[in-house]
TrEMBL record:
InterPro entries: CENP-V/GFA, Mss4-like_sf. GO terms for molecular function: carbon-sulfur lyase activity; metal ion binding. Belongs to the Gfa family. It comes from the Bacteria. It comes from Pseudohalioglobus sediminis. This is CENP-V/GFA domain-containing protein.
Length: 149
């Protein structure tokens, strides 16, 4: 079990189980939500992530479904926990990597998606995927085996 706290420390989640995947999303919504060039997130089964104590998370959607419920700490309003639920599939939780760093061994970033929307170039050996369908497929083909295992 691992815990992750928001930047102000007033909201905490408990994370059980192993990470399913780590991705870097360069889409404009992730840039807007995270106020960063991309979102570096670790994906877990939603059932393995739960708030602790008085944690208050305020969720919103930046676009119509199917969409990610993007959660911020109600106190500091910083990105904290995102959830994706879609029919016929297990729900997935996204936790910012920086909130987990130092507590668990994080997997390497498997893929950079929506790279065509990037605000800055990244020079690494990770696959850089552009376009909506190609980005969705790149994540799903890496995520599905982990969800089925």
């Amino acid at each position: 079990m691992t815990t992750a706290s928001c930047p102000c420390g007033l909201s905490t989640i408990e994370v059980k189980g192993d990470p399913l995947l780590r991705i870097a999303c360069h889409c404009s919504l992730c840039q807007q939500f995270n106020a960063a060039p991309f979102a570096d997130i670790v994906l877990y089964r939603d059932k393995d992530v739960s708030p602790i104590g008085d944690t208050k998370i305020r969720y919103s959607r930046l676009r119509p479904p199917p969409a990610v419920d993007r959660g911020v700490c109600a106190h500091c309003e910083q990105p904290f926990l995102e959830r994706l639920r879609w029919p016929l599939m297990p729900a997935v939780a996204f936790v910012p990597s920086e909130l987990l760093a130092g507590q668990v061994v994080l997997p390497d970033i498997a893929v950079r998606v929506f790279y065509d929307k990037r605000s800055a170039d990244v020079d690494d050996s990770v696959p850089h995927i552009s376009g909506y369908l190609a980005s969705q497929w790149a994540v799903m083909r890496r995520l599905l085996p982990a969800l089925i295992a």
